[in-house]
Amino acid sequence: MIACSIARGASRRICVHLARSSKATPNFLARPLSSTALCANKKHDPKPDPNEAATTNAPSGALGDHEGKFARTDKTVQIHYPSDREMPRQPVVQGRGGMHFKRTLASFSLENKVSMVTGGARGLGLVMAQGLVASGSDLAIVDLNKAEAEEAAAKLIEQFGKENPGIEKMPNVTAHYADVANPVSVNEALADVLAKHTKIDHLVTSAGFTENFDAIHYPFERMQKLWGVNVDGTYLFATGVAKHLMERKAPGSMVMIGSMSGSIVNVPQPQAPYNAAKAAVRHLASSLAVEWAGHDIRVNCISPGYMLTALTRKILDENPQLRDKWISLIPVGKMGTPEDLMGAVTFLLSDASKYITGADLRVDGGYTLT
Ligand SMILES: NC(=O)c1ccc[n+]([C@@H]2O[C@H](COP(=O)([O-])OP(=O)(O)OC[C@H]3O[C@@H](n4cnc5c(N)ncnc54)[C@H](O)[C@@H]3O)[C@@H](O)[C@H]2O)c1
């Protein structure tokens, strides 16, 4: 970085020097030393410098497509988070659990643990929850939509039974109501989970949602709701579980579901409050990781990229241009599936990641690298 700025400073000085000096340019400087040296000849060049013309100030179409257009938000893209009635249903994934016929490290096992997943009735939360059960954990699904959470719990058990015929002990999977943004509701849910499971070892905070409005027109109450669910909800469950672990003097670990939007700005859909909320989730994980490190409680973050859930499928089926644009920006050239998070969440909750805390694991097909 420093070397780079020194080099830039040096070439700028050369450029200024050349602009002021006489016409007799010494031979060793006849070829430009850097692209900035081109400016020495600018006055004499009747053609405009194409690199200078290619700025965001160039008129649209001056050099083909309008410069910067693929890296901008577009306020005409508006997506509302649907109501529960309009929400597409998510099937329980098939054939991913089951006994381990292939050898793997024992430290990945979550046997004899109790995991709680907020927002676990559907979407990424439900599939991650299945991964945890397949890895040996009991499970408490917590969701605003209790009916769907109960349905998901029943299907998950049914699927597990099919994949593990003759198993002696079925996992204990329960469903609970909570509005994660409401402290009273969170405390009631925690009490309910403890009544059914007696302990909680692991937490995954997946309850969250996004909406798209440009910042000037973002409805204030929607923004508050978004931050309430994504940020307050994560904080309230994390502190509630940490308090329980500290009282038990037990080790534990948590995974907060952030998003790549906490590190980059998505285009073309505008979503400033969501991006800021997910940046908050990521840094909350780091901050709590430090605060609770002495209690043997690990806190990590998973930042998914664009994932194909029932809801994103519906949005993209209705907006194929948006799908093409998103996929064009992902280095691996395809969206992720919820199953891609199963291993990541199991790893970060289990002893396989015993020395990892405060990390942000991006599961984004390389999106944030470019
Ligand atoms: N799908 C993606 O492409 C993607 C990408 C990056 C991050 N994420 C994040 O992953 C998480 C899960 O997203 P998803 O795509 O599975 O969403 P989803 O809408 O499919 O599922 C979210 C779940 O959270 C529940 N929920 C919503 N508000 C709640 C509240 N106040 N209290 C309790 N539960 C509530 C919903 O009922 C639902 O079951 C979110 O935090 C989201 O921001 C998703």
Please characterize this protein's 3D structure.
It is built from 10 helices and 7 strands. Strands 3-2-1-4-5-6-7 form a 7-stranded parallel beta sheet, with helices on both faces. The protein is of the alpha/beta class. Helix 3 crosses helix 10 and helix 5 packs parallel to helix 6. It is globular, with a radius of gyration of 26 Å. Bound molecules: nicotinamide-adenine-dinucleotide. Nicotinamide-adenine-dinucleotide binds next to helix 3, helix 6 and helix 8.
Task: State the main characteristics.
binds nicotinamide-adenine-dinucleotide, globular, disordered N terminus, SDR_fam, oxidoreductase activity, acting on NAD(P)H, oxygen as acceptor, oxidoreductase, 7 strands, Glucose/ribitol dehydrogenase, 370 residues, alpha/beta
In short:
The protein has ten helices and seven strands. The protein is an alpha/beta fold. It has a seven-stranded parallel beta sheet, sandwiched between helices.
Number of helices: 10
Main sheet summary: 7 strands, parallel
**Secondary structure tally: strands:** 7
Based on CA inertia axes, which overall geometry fits? globular
Instruction: List unreliable stretches of 5+ residues.
Output: 1-42
Class per helix and strand makeup: alpha/beta
SSE succession: HHEHEHEHEHEHEHHHE
Strand order of the largest sheet: 3-2-1-4-5-6-7
Helical residues, percent:
25-40%
Strand content: 5-15%
Assembly state: single chain
Ligands, ions, cofactors: nicotinamide-adenine-dinucleotide
Radius of gyration: 26 Å
Mean pLDDT: 86
| N/C terminus separation | 18 Å
Region (Disordered): 39-69
GO molecular function: mannitol 2-dehydrogenase (NADP+) activity; oxidoreductase activity, acting on NAD(P)H, oxygen as acceptor
GO biological process, one term: mannitol metabolic process
Family: Belongs to the short-chain dehydrogenases/reductases (SDR) family.
